[in-house]
Amino acid sequence: MEALATIARIAAEAGDAVVDPAAAKNTAAAASAGYAYGLAAIGPGIGIGIIFGKAIESMARQPESAGMVRTTMFLGVAFTEALALIGFVAFILLKFA
Amino acid sequence: MNAATLIAFEFPPINMLLRWQDIVPTVNKVVVISILSSLIGIGIFLAAARKDPKLAPKGARNLAEIIIDFIEKQIIMQTMGPSGLAWTPFLLTIFIFIYLNNMPGVIPFIQMPATARMGVPAFMALMVWVVYNVTGIKHQGPIGYFKSVLFPPGVPKALYILVTPIEIISTFIVRPFSLAVRLFANMLAGHLLLVIFALLSEALFQARDRILIPVGVLPFAVLLFLTGFEILVAFLQAYIFTVLTAVYINMASHAEH
Lengths: 97, 257
Fold this sequence. Notes:
The complex is a heterodimer of chains A (97) and B (257).
Chain A: H1 2-13, H2 21-61, H3 66-96
Helix pairs in contact in A: 1-2, 2-3
Chain B: H1 3-8, H2 29-50, H3 60-79, H4 88-102, H5 119-150, H6 160-205, H7 217-253
Helix pairs in contact in B: 2-3, 2-4, 3-4, 4-7, 5-6, 5-7, 6-7
């Protein structure tokens, strides 16, 4: 919200004043930070859903293998989730750095 | 150190990884939290070790036995098999350290997980990286280890142009990076969520418009729910970090067939 307000202010000032390119770049980065995370969350969201669904299915079919399936499931979730978290880090970098 | 000096310490900013002028380690709140939680872990296990092992376990010893049992049965036996039981002390240390560093994120009045600053996870991942590479070199010899990593058997010769660069990147760069980022980003995301809902409910409870005050119950309920969820996440991240460490060590110590 703050970023959008700043963009609006810069756009209003752009009519007569010279816009500082560094400030404009920072605002654009802050405004696009949200999209970075939102887009990065789509794929891993689907992936984690598939992993958990398949794990539940196999645990229901063979309850005696539940322990092994659970460990492997968390491994798969950890690898998939890393992609979403890299998106989150990109968000942090765009926002604060 | 008294309370006043503790308040005077600053939180390091989020984007601070390492300041090169800090050759002499400086102290900030995250460092204090990290050291205190390490001391708690050491204290629990020292208290457990002092008890008479012949008597029925109780108190600290009971807790320590549950944790060791969990590490051995749920992590090592599932990923490394019986040959990995020698790694129990190392994996136990990693698990306890990460868990106790995650937990301050939900403890009232502290509410800052020490792992939510990149320094702690980055250094742990670096340590794991060194450990699994040294293990691989020790078990398979330097040539054997790099050969089994860079040229995995069972791949057609022509495909090595494609496979070898991917293996180099994934084994030596992506693994430690994702290990560190996973822990850091999970804890930071949880911390930010708690902050957002705490600030939202505070703003609504103090709203000038009287009609908004009861609405503040909603974000407060979400805050309570998220605090419970963060307890789960703190445990889960410590578990995942330990499992991945075990898997990497196991991959390095056995040549692929």
